[in-house]
Amino acid sequence: MKKFVNNLYKNQALFYKVFLFALTAVLIVYLLPKGGNFKYEIPKGKPWQYENLYAPFDFAILKSEEEIQQERQQIRNNHTPYFQFNQEIPKEVKAEVPDVVYDVFPDSLLSNREIQIIGFVNETLEEVYEYGLLQANNRVEDNQLVYLRKGNEAFEISYKNILKQDEVRSFLNTEIEQSSLSNLENELLEVFFNLIEPNVSFDIEFTQRELQSKLGNISYTRGNIEQGSRVIARGEVVEGNKYNILRSLKNEYESQVWSESNYKWIIVGYSVLVALALLMLLLFIRKYRQDIFENNVKVTFIFFNILFMVLLTTLVVNFNIDYVYVVPLCILPLTLKAFFDARLGMFSHVITVLLLGFIVPNSYEYMFLQIIAGIVTILTVSELYKRANLFISVGQITLVYIISYFAFTVIQEGNIADVEAEVLLTFLLGGLATLFVQPLIYIYEKIFGMVSDMSLLELSDTNSKLLKELSEKAPGTFHHSLNVANLAEAAANEINANAMLVRVGALYHDIGKMKNPTYFSENQTSAVNSHDELAPKESAQIITDHVINGIEIAKKHNLPDRVIDFIRTHHGTTTVYFFYMKEKEQNENAVADDFRYPGPIPFSKETAILMMCDSVEAASKSLKEPTAGVIDNFVEKIINKQMKEEQFLNANITFKEIQVVKKILKRKLKNIFHLRVEYPE
Question: Best exposed site among 107, 256, 455, 626 by fewest CB in 10 Å?
């Protein structure tokens, strides 16, 4: 049991990577669509380049969106409106006829004609309410058929049969004139206007319900294709009905209900492909980026970014497929390049695009566009901390998107008339969204504790609080750090190392000297040496402690670990040679380890460059009469000694690169000492 626990502890980093790999694969598979994928691209207007295609099952031919819209419009145009007929109002009106007649007509006119007048009014009301009196006119043509609802029954009639309010007077005048009571027109009109009330209204709720019912019954298909029927032959042009049939087959294939067995096999297939893609990325990191592979935080960061892009694209596709290019996928290579390097950024981008090919439609076109855009991103953004570079790169990315889309449209449609302005707008929005990379990098720095070139640029500002404190407490050390920074930056540029990182590391590498500044020669302004009253061991202890003190100060001021690494390693495990020899003069049994820096030795190109530049710049102050030959021998001696002591054993720097660094240091020192060729008198 104890052995198992020990093995578990020793291999915990490996177990974590396996867990991270499995978790990322599961989440990505969960986000992928679970239907079947149609394995053919449908090249509208182009010849079918695959083998003869036969229907694998029965399926219906889908109508085009234009056909469906036309049917809907036709239904709306031909839909018969409904009107509600109130049957109670005519009954109430007829019941009031005698009372109204007696109120309007004087007794002299009613004598001997009462029955005739009441009978005429009732007959006329029967005609008025035969189809009803409309409350308000509607935008309906007179010849159009409408439904008149009386209770639970509906009768189809012509709209003109319904009496409108503006037609009542003329209708009554005609009826009165054609009767034997024309001499009583005024009294009769008064009776009718006191009695008549509208009883027909437009039934908008029932009309809309019936309309929606008809629209809901629209068939989205026309005709069927039987299993085994040939859908399209090789070489046939994909257009018209053939295109609709292929589109219908693809839609049916991707939307059909899969059985539990089918579903499980789809999951297995997705899992294998996703795991294979992520495994390739992991193997790439392990083989070519060993330092990143050994850092679980960095591996987590890479996998998180891939998962984030897959999630974001899935959400956009589910919301509206037309906005898929708004997703700023080029943020991925930009981010990884800012924290790591261009090669890892590009490889991760390609893996991510391959995974997204399962999600988006027209996957070939999408992958082509995104890979080209990723390449442009990697090639154009050299220094992300320069804002102008980012804006220029975003413009170039957007331009590449537009040009590629234009080319695909011309290939598929055969003309430029079908280029859609909306798609071009999505490319523009996607390009603008890429500008979010700067705040995103800042957020990542805070979450994952990493440092980018933009943060390094801020740290290189000599007006920062910590460097100002260094210039006040230890001005000589500050001047030495500036000189080392210039030398290291020049050397890093020559061997393609991270110049910004090594410059920042050089500026902060000696901040530990602020604790006891006068014990370091560059800060001693008087003839009195603070070490004269100390034993060699004590002096050496103060000198070597500036590394530990520097680490403490750096952590107190929240400097990134990548910068603190320069403080740890800039002396490696070398000895404080001056005080060691001084001790040896007094004690032949002096032990070199008592005068040795704690280490570790440099473990990268950048930290190795700093060690060389720091030693050479500090020792160059002791040169009395520097000449070109003296400087050449001086640089060779110092760096060769470091190599002999195996200080660069763990750094990934080659002999050739060390020779280049030597060459740069020699040239720079000659410029510093203003050496000139001696001309004859």
Answer: 107
